[in-house]
Design goal:
With 436 residues, the protein is mainly α. Helices cover 61% and strands 2% of the residues. The protein has helices at residues 2-25, 35-38, 68-74, 86-95, 101-114, 119-126, 134-144, 150-157, 165-191, 205-212, 218-230, 239-249, 254-265, 273-288, 294-306, 324-336, 341-360, 371-380, 389-410, 423-435; strands at residues 53-56, 60-63. The chain is globular and about 65 Å long. Bound molecules: carboxymethyldethia coenzyme *A. Residues 238, 269-271, 273, 305, 310-317, 362-365, 369-371 line the site of carboxymethyldethia coenzyme *A.
Length: 436
């Protein structure tokens, strides 16, 4: 496979680079940690490394140095499509460079070969109670595949540390290949007739997801490709990426690690915000029997805040400007269905809610994040069961977390184990600082 050869060719130089950095400059400080950060969710503590993406607080995400508009322009696209192959994005994540069409198709073809979901996974999902959350089913399906892990098998047989990345990449390709079919089946099981929709071998990974969801529409194929690009990676400190990295650092395989990552994604302050968000928009529509005025919407937002809830889809731990992932989706909606009422409401919320959050005084980022609008685009294409939305986020996020874990293994990253302190120790440190 081209991707594997490209990765293997880079590794010796990368390993040397990291070894030299740590050996010669291991004592150089890159930041300090204060008591506020220890008790405050480690915000802005510089303790992780990834070369796959970087989130600038004012600019937003860059994947391997490229902004979202640059990627949409430069990555190869299926014939006639507006949005790029996800296989090309995965190549970029892993090999570090924009692929040719041939290289993007190399990944797409691998995914096709590896995409069949074993029957026991379907049976396991069918056995669950009907009210099980789709994210629980998704995480279970990933964990259920663990018995297939080549990494686990080869580790037990004995392999050199330098080789770890290879079965990790194999596992990652096998898992990401199956993820769209698993997600579409969960949708069928929960909201359709429970039948397995076979994939279309003529379609790419993103387009095939749309097909397996039974939304036979070129617009939805492109939305799926865009969605999978936008949600894939957001550097390594977010809950899903960090959890996956942490679990994998114990040399747990990709199935254990990314299933745990998906459990973090299922939290309402993280990926589940996209389902909360559409729920909130629909509540507004219901209360005002359609689009509200600006004043009505502002009052509704205040009512939400006064009842102790957050405005889902707004705010971010790192970003301090409108999330470019929001902007890309907004542009897609404006181009394809500017007059759709729920989309129009999402746009109106963007006009009204930042000012409300600013007035609240404590929110560091009053701007929308990726989740503020994604549901309204799905809604337009008829995918309206919003507790499914985080599963699509999960399919996409697997691209980022698996690529990171492969690189983590390739560079020999060790088991992660930060140090804890007691509150009394922190009080002691505070008293000493005050006395000095
Ligand atoms: N609505 C109401 N209050 C908000 C808020 C929002 N959208 N965003 C932040 N705040 C509040 C926080 O709850 C916090 O209040 P307390 O001091 O009373 O606890 C205060 O403002 C300061 O928070 P912050 O430093 O600005 O934000 P954090 O880094 O702590 O949290 C996030 C970031 C995303 C969890 C938060 O903005 C939030 O809860 N947003 C709504 C949920 C959401 O959209 N999550 C999705 C994020 C993207 C993703 O991961 O998918």
């Amino acid at each position: 496979m081209i991707l594997k050869q490209k990765l293997a060719a880079q590794l010796p130089a990368w390993r040397e680079r990291v070894k030299k950095l740590v050996k010669e400059s291991g004592n150089v400080k890159v930041g300090e940690v204060n008591i506020g950060q220890v008790y405050g969710g480690m915000r802005d503590v510089r303790g992780l490394v990834t070369d796959i993406s970087y989130v600038d607080p004012n600019e937003g995400i860059r994947f391997r140095g490229f902004t979202i508009p640059e990627l949409i322009e430069k990555l190869p696209k299926p014939p006639g499509a507006e949005m790029p192959y996800s296989g090309g994005l995965y190549h970029l994540f892993l090999a570090g460079e924009i692929p040719t069409a041939e290289e993007a198709l190399d990944v797409e073809e691998e995914w096709k070969k590896r995409g069949e979901v074993p029957d026991y996974i379907y049976k396991m999902l069918q056995a669950m109670p009907a009210d099980t959350h789709p994210m629980t089913l998704f995480s279970m399906a990933i964990l259920g595949l663990q018995r297939e892990s080549l990494f686990a098998q080869r580790y037990h047989e004995g392999m050199k540390k330098d080789e770890y990345w290879d079965p990790m990449l194999e596992d990652s390709l096998n898992l990401t290949a199956k993820a769209p079919a698993i997600a579409a089946y969960i949708y069928s099981l929960k909201y359709q007739d429970g039948k397995i929709m076979p994939g279309d071998p003529k379609l790419d990974w993103g387009g095939n997801f749309a097909h397996m969801m039974r939304v036979e529409n070129k617009g939805y194929q492109d939305l799926s490709r865009l969605y999978f690009l936008l949600h894939s990676d957001h550097e390594s400190g977010n809950v899903s990426a960090h959890t996956t990295h942490l679990v994998a650092s114990a040399l747990s395989d990709i199935y254990y690690a990314s299933s745990a990552g998906m459990d973090g994604l299922a939290g309402p302050l993280h990926g589940l915000a996209n389902q909360e968000c559409l729920g909130w928009l629909l509540e507004v529509m219901k209360k005002f029997n359609g689009l509200p005025s600006r004043e009505q919407l502002s009052q509704f937002a205040w009512d939400t805040l006064n009842s102790g809830q957050v405005i889902p889809g707004y705010g971010h731990a790192v970003l301090r400007k409108t999330d470019p992932r929001f902007t890309a989706q907004m542009e897609f909606g404006l181009k394809h269905f500017p007059d759709e009422p729920v989309f129009k409401l999402a746009a109106l919320v963007y006009d009204v809610v930042p000012e409300v959050l600013r007035q609240l005084g404590k929110v560091k980022d009053p701007w929308p994040n990726v989740d503020a609008i994604s549901g309204s685009l799905q809604y337009y294409y008829g995918v309206r069961e919003f507790d499914f939305y985080t599963v699509m986020f999960g399919v996409s996020r697997l691209l980022g977390v698996t690529a990171n874990v492969v690189w983590g293994r390739a560079l020999g990253q060790p088991i992660e184990r930060p140090k804890s302190l007691t509150t009394a120790m922190l009080e002691d440190a505070a008293a000493k600082a005050a006395a000095a």
